[in-house]
Design goal:
The two termini are 20 Å apart. The longest helix is centred in the first third of the chain and has 13 residues, at 42-54. Strands 4-3-2-5-1-6-8-7 form an eight-stranded mixed sheet. The protein has one domain (4-19, 30-194): Dihydrofolate Reductase, subunit A. It has 197 residues and is of the alpha/beta class. The chain contains five helices and eight strands; from the N terminus they run E-H-E-H-H-E-E-H-E-H-E-E-E. Helix 1 (42-54) packs parallel to helix 3.
Length: 197
């Protein structure tokens, strides 16, 4: 059974919305898009590249999929360390509005209920699945206890509100730290797994 790994960038107050650009996601009047870029350094670039290189496939929500599909197939030569795995490995998309065929090569629309479809993917042979971005999808996966690992880059800033990956459902979800490192910009690269009962 392969693992499902959530790989995300977040602020200290748990916001994962629009890390890359001001116009990336302004839902809810979010005005701090691009907050992550000042905290990226060589250590975090290697962390991202290593995670993408070892992924057996990728899992996305609709918004993240459409954003990445518009960029990575045309990435520069310098960006191929990220673009190559994204462009060549299987991509699974959770969406109620998209229809197949999906333009980005090796992309498949998940059928039926998301939790059931993802549980079925985890039972298949193959490398681990990496979830990138996709805050609403991650909340669903966490609520159904389908996440095996959280790879978080926690940046040292607070934005005061926005979309996060953790469900606000009152459920207790103990985690254990399985790896950590501090970057030159003061961000924390932390890997958590569900704590054993």
């Amino acid at each position: 059974m392969r693992k499902l790994i959530v790989h995300t960038w977040m602020t200290l107050d748990g916001v994962a919305q629009a890390p890359g650009a001001p116009e990336e996601d302004t839902t809810g009047g979010f005005q701090h898009g691009g907050w992550h870029l000042p905290y990226f350094d060589d250590t975090s670039r290697k962390w991202v590249a290593d995670s993408y290189a070892t992924a057996g496939g990728f899992l996305f929500g609709r918004r993240t999929f459409q954003s990445l599909a518009g960029y990575w197939p045309h990435a520069s030569e310098e960006e191929q360390v990220i673009a190559e795995p994204l462009n060549t490995r299987p991509k699974y998309v959770a969406s109620r509005t998209l229809t197949e065929p999906l333009a980005w090569q090796h992309s498949t629309l998940l059928r039926g209920e998301v939790a059931e479809a993802v549980a079925a993917l985890k039972r298949q042979d193959g490398g681990d699945l990496l979830v990138v971005g996709s805050t609403m999808l991650v909340q669903t996966l966490l609520a159904h206890r389908l996440v095996d690992e959280l790879q978080l880059m926690i940046d040292p800033l607070v934005v005061g509100g926005g979309k996060g990956i953790f469900p606000a459902d009152g459920a207790l979800r103990p985690l254990q730290l399985v790896g950590s490192q501090v970057t030159s910009t003061g961000a924390i690269l932390a890997t958590y797994a569900p704590a054993k009962a």
